[in-house]
Amino acid sequence: xxxxxxxxxxxxxxxxxxxxxxxxxxxxxxxxxxxxxxxxxxxxxxxxxxxxxxxxxxxxxxxxxxxxxxxxxxxxxxxxxxxxxxxxxxxxxxxxxxxxxxxxxxxxxxxxxxxxxxxxxxxxxxxxxxxxxxxxxxxxxxxxxxxxxxxxxxxxxxxxxxxxxxxxxxxxxxxxxxxxxxxxxxxxxxxxxxxxxxxxxxxxxxxxxxxxxxxxxxxxxxxxxxxxxxxxxxxxxxxxxxxxxxxxxxxxxxxxxxxxxxxxxxxxxxxxxxxxxxxxxxxxxxxxxxxxxxxxxxxxxxxxxxxxxxxxxxxxxxxxxxxxxxxxxxxxxxxxxxxxxxxxxxxxxxxxxxxxxxxxxxxxxxxxxxxxxxxxxxxxxxxxxxxxxxxxxxxxxxxxxxxxxxxxxxxxxxxxxxxxxxxxxxxxxxxxxxxxxx
Length: 438
Ligand code: DGY
Hints:
Structural class: mainly alpha
Bound molecules: (2R)-2,3-dihydroxypropanoic acid
Radius of gyration: 20 Å
């Protein structure tokens, strides 16, 4: 990218962050996702920080002000009614003062808090905000290890594919097939009114997504019951790696802030998780894979979830180099990295949401992890792919790794946020922050 284009890309990203700003929170994109989403919002704060640190902290504060009394941070906060999305609050019926969904999402929060804190220009503000938000983040992690690991294995399970953030990944196919569809109330999808159905999950998956929602609703959203009652319980290496990295970052932050009890708790959780993590390594595939906890089997599926352990520095040198080899192999088979699934798998689909497309947020987490694991050249190559994608095809929700075609929603917030990060962190001349926020 030329210097001119770097600045243009940065300005476009700034404009998208502004366009999707709804005051104290940011929507992922107009129309398709008209509310506040958990991990979208956290990663969005990393973009906002480049223009207005106070607004970045507010994004997180708003999300956490809808934390449940048991510690869970819900995956959607339905701030304003909007008929353009399904399933809305009338389906979830969680009984929260401001309606929310009843499941959670990948906990990037700890990582984001640490990054906002470390990079802060306004130290006083960062100290004050981090001190207030740290116990809430710690409560969420405590909830994970209680509610989603009731037997104390060290690793947490997701109980709904939407929790993974990788909704229709091939990783879930077998476990999801076990979820029944009898009794699913009639419904009308809205996502396929915004986006080509060929880029979204199939109806067979939606039926099961909704069956699970109805099941959990019938149990009054009581998290002491949901894990064991769910026929879908999967231990995802990607999700657990994010939780471990966020835990380590929370521990470091707690240490700096003098919260030694919280630091110790977070370190303990991370070290138990690290010890248990090796059970997810499949030596024949040379990849970390999911464990289907309800079915009692490791899942033969080579996805981006198995690359994310580098984000937490997991694995030994050999395992990390297997991950690096896999990324190189996939990049060699596509125009742009990183595909979300193994291209050799007959179930790979280059345009269907999480069954093949590239996502900038995943590239960002992988690139951060590769650099952390001493693989800076590959980290830079992955970041360069992200910038090439937006430079050729704009700020989409996700992209076809073979052609680079923009897919899903447009003017996408977290894609914009990642671009601001990449342009300011990854060398080259830093763009000038000159949006209306500056
Ligand atoms: C959707 O509606 O597609 C979301 O990914 C669920 O959170």
